[in-house]
Design goal:
By secondary structure, the protein is of the alpha/beta class. It has 15 helices and nine strands. It has one domain: Aldolase class I (TIM Barrel). The structure holds iron/sulfur cluster (SF4).
């Protein structure tokens, strides 16, 4: 069993169960966590799909788009209580099987993120992120430091990342894809099922970055037997195809919305088209499931990043979306090469960030 110590260390994780704002923003997550509804990936497994593994990829995508409509109808029936998932048998081939097949195909010309390297990872090549055909994890454990509604969170840290954040706190994992141990979907599924039986509120896929590991993650969820909410903890620089494959499998997108413009994104994370891609994916995630958005406030970046990010969230996702405005910035990794971010955030800067959130109209802020 998970140590009961977290109840003492994180009393807010108990209090959040009575928090109306948290429940209003994440109603389905709470229902899955409390086993009143099935996780989305478990519904996905019950959507029957007749597909031929040797069919061309375009044909499989067409089938996928059609079957996603069926998934949404089934989820609505399950959520309304009109239908019990247990009353449906497990089909020979499911929508989740099809997603796994499509993810494996994408591995042959990698475009899981918007860098779109095209590397044939299935043949042993690597692209920008350096992640190979098999996933590696740096660690996995019951995390007690996440947002209160997520604790205890069974967190899996994948090695490698699609960004190169110059101040990364996890640089020893994110910038070294060869670190950690190789894992199979089978072993991950067993770990996830065990964690749920031991009291995990969710499984939390993070890194580094989970995006290059999408095939492993989908396959492991396909093998999971327990009902556990799935949390996609990501920089959200996914390609459109990856967002489509994720759709219907995640209960929460735990996102990281860092920069309010492409110049800062390029300077600190070496990534282009940041705002267009990440804002697009937030809209898709919001349509698909529930969101907790993290915004790490960077020193000297209140006007260029914090203000536009919080304003965009309020205008596009509404006042009740759950936003974590974070003051935990530390100057790690190569931050000493950038004078303007080579220090902690001041209390004044953090107060200004909270004020901006308030002025933007955000009413469900965790800080
Ligand atoms: S996941 Fe890695 S290899 Fe694939 S497109 Fe992104 S950076 Fe390139």
């Amino acid at each position: 069993m998970v140590s009961p110590l977290w109840r003492i260390l994180r009393p807010d994780a108990i209090e959040v169960l009575r928090d109306e704002k948290a429940r209003a923003a994440l109603p389905r997550y709470f229902a899955v966590m409390e086993d009143r509804l099935p996780a989305r990936f478990q519904i996905c497994k019950r959507v029957e799909v007749d597909f031929n593994r040797s069919a061309p990829e375009e044909e499989l995508w067409r089938t996928h788009h059609e079957k996603m409509k069926e998934f949404r109808k089934l989820r609505a029936k399950v959520d309304s209580g009109e239908l019990k998932l247990e009353s449906l048998g497990r089909p020979e081939h499911s929508l989740l099987d099809l997603k796994v097949e499509l993810a494996r195909r994408m591995l042959k010309s990698c475009r899981f993120c918007e860098r779109r390297c095209g590397a044939d990872r299935a043949a042993g090549k690597t692209g920008w992120c350096g992640v190979g055909d098999k996933s590696r994890i740096a660690s996995e454990f019951m995390h007690h430091g996440e947002e209160p509604e997520l604790v205890p969170s069974y967190t899996i840290f994948f090695s490698g990342c699609t960004f190169s954040c110059q101040y990364c706190q996890n640089w020893d994992i994110s910038q070294y894809p060869e670190e950690g141990v190789q894992v199979s979907p089978q072993s991950l599924a067993k770990l996830i099922d065990n964690a749920r039986r031991e009291g995990a509120r969710n499984v939390n896929f993070v890194g580094g970055e989970p995006t290059p590991n999408l095939p492993t993650i989908l396959e492991s969820l396909n093998l999971c037997e327990t009902n556990i909410p799935s949390v996609w903890n990501s920089n959200m620089f996914l390609s459109l195809e990856s967002m489509q494959l994720l759709s219907g499998t995640q209960d929460i997108y735990l996102t990281d919305f860092k920069y309010g413009n492409d110049k800062c994104a390029w300077r600190y994370s070496k990534v282009g088209q940041y705002f267009a891609v990440v804002s697009r994916n937030h809209l898709l995630a919001f349509e698909d499931a529930e969101l907790i958005i993290r915004h790490l406030v960077l020193p000297n970046h209140i006007e260029c990043c914090t203000r536009p990010v919080l304003k965009w969230i309020a205008e596009n996702l509404g006042p009740m979306v759950r936003v974590n405005v974070m003051d935990q910035y530390r100057a790690c990794y190569k931050a000493d090469q950038f004078e303007e971010i080579n220090r902690r955030l001041t209390p004044e800067e953090f107060s200004r960030a909270l004020k901006i959130a308030e002025e933007a109209g955000l009413k469900n802020v965790i800080s």
